[in-house]
Design a protein that fits this description.
alpha/beta, Trna Endonuclease, Chain: A, domain 1, six-stranded mixed β-sheet, globular
């Protein structure tokens, strides 16, 4: 059997992992009184606007959510491609309508040696890219508990 170094261990596919995480996020937000729609479309852009599909969202109240079910690499190194994807989410939030509450909803995943979560690692190293009105939440998938960390 061939292995894929970029595939989550035990998962059918990374797309499947992401979809399941989005569903868990939607349920979590419902428990705190926010009814969000999957694949919510909002305009993004500076002068020219383009429709962008966010993982979750609502127009009333105005909320945009990007969900990231990312983990540290098996060797414990910073996952550079995933960090770039988080930066892309920050760019999209920065060019989305200002009236929207913006939430980056990240899987709580701890470094195997240091115990630092991947989301806190991102804030520590890329915090200068986190714009106004952007919240970062960590979600413990096993405990079904979310916590705002930024």
């Amino acid at each position: 059997m061939e292995t894929n170094n970029y595939q989550r261990l035990g998962a059918t596919s990374n797309a499947h992992v992401g979809s399941e995480f989005e569903a868990a996020a939607q349920i979590f937000f419902e428990t705190v009184g926010l009814r969000l729609t999957r694949d919510f479309v909002a305009p993004v852009g500076f002068k020219v606007k383009k429709a962008k599909k966010f993982d979750l969202g609502s127009s009333s109240p105005p909320i945009l959510v990007e969900c990231k079910s990312y983990t540290w690499t098996i060797s414990g190194k910073s996952p550079s491609a995933k960090i770039r994807s988080l930066n892309e989410a920050m760019l999209l939030f920065s060019v989305s309508p200002p009236e929207y509450r913006k939430i980056l909803f990240v899987l709580k995943n701890l470094h195997p040696r240091t115990g630092l979560s991947l989301a806190k690692h991102y804030i520590k190293n890329q915090g200068h890219l986190i714009g106004p009105r952007v919240e970062i939440w960590e979600f413990d998938l096993e405990e079904k508990r979310g916590e705002r960390i930024f």
